[in-house]
Amino acid sequence: MDISVAPKEKVTPARSWFRSDATQRLLAFGALIILIIFFSAASPNFLQFNNLVGILLATAVNGVLALGVTFVIITGGIDLSIGTVMTFSAVMTGVFITFWGLPVPVGLVGGILTGALAGVINGTIIAKMKIPPFISTLGMMYVAKGLSLVISGLKPIYFNDTPEFRPITMGSALGSVFPNVEFLQIPNAVFILFGAAIIASLILTKTILGRYTFALGSNEEATRLSGVNVDRWKIAVYTLCGTFAGLGGVMMASRLNSAQPALGQGYELDAIAAVVIGGTSLSGGEGTIQGTIIGAFVMSVLVNGLRILSVPQEWQTVVTGGIIIVAVYLDILRRRKG
Amino acid sequence: MSELLVVMEGIEKSFPGVHALSQSRFELRPGEVHALVGENGAGKSTMMKILAGVYSKDAGRILLKGREVDIPNPRAAQHLGISMIHQELNLMPHLTIAQNIFIGREPRRGVKFVLDDAAINAQTRQFLDMLHLNLDPRTKVADLTVAKQQMVEIAKALSFNAEVLIMDEPTAALTESEIDELFRIIRKLRDQGVGIVYITHRLEELFTISDRVTVMRDGQYVGTVKTSDTTRDEVIRMMVGRTIYETAPDILERPEQDIVLEVKNLNRGRVLKNVNFYLKRGEILGFAGLMGAGRTEVARAIIAADPVDSIEVYVQGKRAHIHTPSDAVRYGIGYLSEDRKRYGLTLGMDVETNIVLASFRKFLGALGVVKRSKTRATAEHFVKMLAIRTPSLQQKVKNLSGGNQQKLVIAKWLTADTDILIFDEPTRGIDVGAKSEIYKLLNDLAHQGKSIIMISSELPEILRMSHRIIVMCEGRITGELSAAEATQEKIMTYATQRGGIIQTTESAPTLSQVGTA
């Protein structure tokens, strides 16, 4: 009677190393290391402290946006609005602090909540009105862009009355403790990025929201049939994405000491590119925060290095595009073996 | 009163354009296996999806242990102890076994937001042990075989302390020994007092496993009988509303004709090992074997759908160089996938378009314009010839039944002038009435000189249809039988003959087990 189904079968079928989940991250990480070695060898300026800080700063905002959209992409969705929602959050931060004279901390929270609100709206449109994410967030992209321009009156909003605003990202809390150690003069924005990444990673791997993020991307209908309130969690995921976009907006405003209403469009694509290079599948169900962070650094190291080598900006863009295609192709190859 | 676990009565359900259920009813006792049968479209799945909270009923009432209940969604059903294992497995392939089982009710720690994976792994371990499944709860579901995935679904249902367990075609993708394992689990649950609804197309199974049978037809309740009091023909009569005696195997004439297809030296890693065989004109060559024996892989290798290490294909005695599936079509080889919906048909398009899709070039006039009159005539011809039941040529294919969809795939390949047809599980998910039509069609095609390879996991089907049978196991051909000498036992012996591995009682199902199939 006790005949098991197929005792010869291994408990866990062997997977080739090429296919394992960690591999894409390793590939991306390897690519990052190779880029760094290449640029270090090609130009003595690359490893200069100021340049490295520049790379870290350039990664900060894009990285934060990419963190949020990682969740959305794992659900199998997309959020095209994060770039202009970031701008809208920055503008609203300016409104709160400069126009209304609210205290800076209130303005910061208000800015982040602006992004979260955009996320709630995105999620509600997608989950309740059943409009595909591509379309609904495309709409939100335009709405946020337009509102930024309307509210700001087409002009940048400066934070000149609140001198404590800019150091939030550009100051160095660590550096002020050790004022004489040059290599510790790292701007706060970098720590905000890594702090946000750690939080995002914990949410993705340890919490119920993270679990349902994967479940939605893996098989939404099965998730629904399992009794999960799919709509609610979808809204939560887009809200989280919007929150990160709001954080990105506040960081951007602080870094520039101004809210630039015309900025922002195109940032969403950089963020999505970082996520994809980091091995998150656009078809949903898999992805990691570590991968996204590595992907964001691949993007900024590439741009920075090419600039140092005096490659014209136009060609930087061409190379970036090529890298994205190669990264995704490697991912496809990895999946095909299996 | 409390003797009945579930009573459904007066159930009505309409979908746009279809009256799926009308005044339908069903009852279930605790500790019984109650088979629910009927042709495709009879409303079995719809009825049970209402009980499981997937669909809401338009009218009627559901009593659970004598109390009227409202089941608005799957979660409510689970709370009432009703679990359903759907035909399309409802698992999240990227998640682990434990994560799948506890989806929607994960134990949390601390602030009710943090997951406790250690707890779900430990509890999953227990459920798997109850089913004697030697699986690691942390294994990703995507890495499991279909059979194991099914077991995970059962473990999931058990984890709800289900009193009512609904299984929709649970054996469709299982091998004989896996079915035995499933039946063992079903009997165990039944003995524990669980009421089990067993939806199936396979009548043999019904007599093995069920205590009572309810038959549905056209969305209506036909009747309920005790399994031990009824016969196969009686059940079929209730299903189709007329008597179809399952005919004895057709008189098999052994065609002594020329070889139309020969495959030599086919190797593909560990999947296929030194496969050689030939196919004669007008012959139906059955490919038998357990799931994963490599039969589908052989077919896909012939049409170059998968890369292989080596293969030589000869068509009509001449070496054929097939590098893509479209090359195969040019050599007159058509492959009819087991997964009709994914690979065989364009579901959102109409009947006519699907029939001519693979051979559009034949219907092009000047400037590449499609000649509608010609496509319509061709489609009409095949609809008539194959008796495809469709209200019109403009009907969307997704609205046709499984049997008619299968005929449509055949029509498509006939239009493309293929002489060699490879059928992969031609009757999977097709009801009895349509099945015998497909059988007849295959016979007719063979008579007309088409050569057919038929891959099937149903032994009665293989035995009934094939002129010659090739049996595979683990990527090798382990036996060849003529129609005259073939028996279920012989096929199963070959099908479990693992090359180079010493047979043990565990790895080779014994004949007595096979006999239950």
CATH class of the largest domain in chain B: Alpha Beta
Largest Cβ-defined interface: A-B, 34 and 44 residues
**Biggest sheet, spatial arrangement of strands of chain B:** 6-9-10-3-11-12
> Counting H and I runs of at least 4 residues, what is the number of helices of chain A?
14
Indicate the proportion of strand residues of chain B.
Answer: 15-25%
- Write the CATH homologous superfamily of the largest domain in chain B: P-loop containing nucleotide triphosphate hydrolases
What does this structure look like?
The complex is a heterodimer of chains A (338) and B (517). Chain A is mainly alpha-helical and 338 residues long. Chain A has one domain: ABC transporter involved in vitamin B12 uptake, BtuC. In chain A, 70% of the residues lie in helices and 1% in strands. Chain A is built from 14 helices and 2 strands, in the order H-H-H-H-H-E-H-H-H-H-H-H-E-H-H-H. Chain A has helices spanning 21-42, 49-74, 82-99, 104-128, 133-152, 167-170, 173-177, 188-206, 208-218, 220-225, 230-256, 267-277, 289-308, 313-336; strands at 157-158, 258-259. A two-stranded antiparallel ribbon of chain A has the order 1-2. In chain A, helix 12 (267-277) packs across helix 13. Chain A is globular and about 60 Å long. Chain B has 517 residues and is of the alpha/beta class. Chain B folds into 3 domains: 1-81 and 162-246, 3-Layer(aba) Sandwich (Rossmann fold); 93-159, no CATH class; 284-290 and 334-515, 3-Layer(aba) Sandwich (Rossmann fold), CATH 3.40.50.300. Helix content of chain B is 32%, strand content 25%. Chain B is built from 18 helices and 22 strands. Chain B has helices spanning 44-51, 74-79, 97-101, 117-130, 146-159, 176-191, 203-209, 232-240, 295-302, 325-330, 340-344, 351-356, 372-385, 402-415, 432-447, 459-465, 488-495, 511-515; strands at residues 6-15, 18-28, 33-37, 59-64, 67-69, 82-85, 108-109, 114-115, 164-168, 195-199, 212-217, 220-226, 259-268, 272-280, 284-289, 310-315, 318-320, 333-336, 420-424, 451-455, 468-473, 476-482. In chain B, the strands form 5 sheets. In chain B, strands 6-9-10-3-11-12 form a 6-stranded mixed sheet, with helices on both faces. A 6-stranded mixed sheet of chain B has the order 18-19-20-15-21-22, sandwiched between helices. In chain B, strand 16 and strand 17 form a beta hairpin. The longest helix of chain B has 16 residues, at 176-191. Chain B is globular and about 70 Å long. The model of chain B is unreliable at 243-249 and 500-517 (pLDDT under 50). The A-B interface holds A 1-9, 11-13, 15, 206-211, 214-215, 217-219, 221-228, 285-286 and B 54, 73-75, 78, 86, 89-95, 99, 103-106, 108, 113-115, 132-136, 139, 143, 145, 147-148, 151, 177-178, 180-181, 184, 501, 505-507, 509, 513.
